[in-house]
């Protein structure tokens, strides 16, 4: 592998290192087809290029800004496998989306809270101001090839009318899926009424759950799901790591 750097050539050393590593990533020396998709450690790279770790860290940040790698604190730096197409249509299901890419998903309920609906939540769910709702915080990940916890893909806040879904907490304890919880309350199917797509920089909590830095943008999807008679059953805001997920809006068949 190339290790020679040109000192005083007018190109910062960290940029030269980033260019070399980007070329090696493009040649698939890391990632798909290799035993490990993890880049060598900062210490190893510093030794290879004869520089300090700060210079290596700046090079890795440059690669992350290009979407070539993802830095997971405490684990290392991993080559990005490419964004997963996430289809948003009339029936939008996270697990089914990943299955289209031969991937499995896992869902973790982070918190369940009951309280008065904020105005935007009440309007979306067709409730009076201050009506009681459940707020469910969810983290979704892919499942790694060895069955372990994979890469975090989406973090979301989901709101449900408390009066209609009175047994929500017990239902989620039995099965940590929205579909199972709704089915337990008689909603056997639901569809997407609307989705609003945007982008923003993550706050500290989002960045922590998605294992990204706060300079990496997230895609946002604000949505309303309804039952078979058009009554709102869920209002949600999902945050996707933009370098891991690509949103695909699918029109209705004619």
Automatic annotation (TrEMBL):
Q: Report the InterPro entries cross-referenced here.
A: Bact_HTH_transcr_reg, Chorismate_lyase_/UTRA_dom_sf, CP_lyase_PhnF, Tscrpt_reg_HTH_GntR, UTRA, WH-like_DNA-bd_sf, WH_DNA-bd_sf
Q: What's any GO biological process attached to this entry?
A: negative regulation of DNA-templated transcription
Is Hydrolase tagged as a keyword? no
One annotated GO molecular function is: DNA-binding transcription factor activity
Keyword Transcription: yes or no? yes
Q: What Pfam families has UniProt attached to this entry?
A: GntR, UTRA
Question: Where in this chain does the record put each HTH gntR-type domain?
Answer: 11-82
Alphabetically ordered keywords of this record: DNA-binding, Transcription, Transcription regulation
PANTHER family with a match to the protein in the record: MANNOSYL-D-GLYCERATE TRANSPORT/METABOLISM SYSTEM REPRESSOR MNGR-RELATED (PTHR44846), MANNOSYL-D-GLYCERATE TRANSPORT_METABOLISM SYSTEM REPRESSOR MNGR-RELATED (PTHR44846:SF1)
This protein is called what? Phosphonate metabolism transcriptional regulator PhnF
Native source species: Pandoraea terrae
